[in-house]
């Protein structure tokens, strides 16, 4: 990766990524292809994946990270 590519969002592929992605992901959440993302892209993907989980799946995930 060269310096020009460092701001490419690993979720949408557009320039202007403003943060490193979070290391933890919900089941079914798309994992970024680069270490940088737009905050808004990461939030949207997190909401999308979380919204598809059952309450039982959420509980299992949360218990696993304690």
Polypeptide structure, described:
The chain is mostly helical and 66 residues long. The chain has one domain (3-64). Helix content is 35%, strand content 6%. The protein has helices at residues 39-51, 55-64; strands at residues 19-20, 36-37. It has a two-stranded antiparallel sheet. The radius of gyration is 13 Å and the shape is elongated. The N and C termini lie far apart (35 Å). The model has no long low-confidence stretch (mean pLDDT 92).
Summarize the structure.
By secondary structure, this protein is mainly alpha-helical. 35% of the residues lie in helices and 6% in strands.
Structural descriptors:
2 strands, elongated
Order of helical and strand elements: EEHH
Strand element count: 2
Estimate what percentage of residues fall within beta strands: 5-15%
**Helical element count?**
2
Biggest sheet statistics: 2 strands, antiparallel
Quote the average pLDDT.
Answer: 92
Structural domain tally: 1
Read across the widest sheet, the strand sequence of neighbours is 1-2
User: Alpha-carbon distance between the termini?
Assistant: 35 Å
Cα shape:
elongated
Q: Radius of gyration in whole Å, from Cα?
A: 13 Å
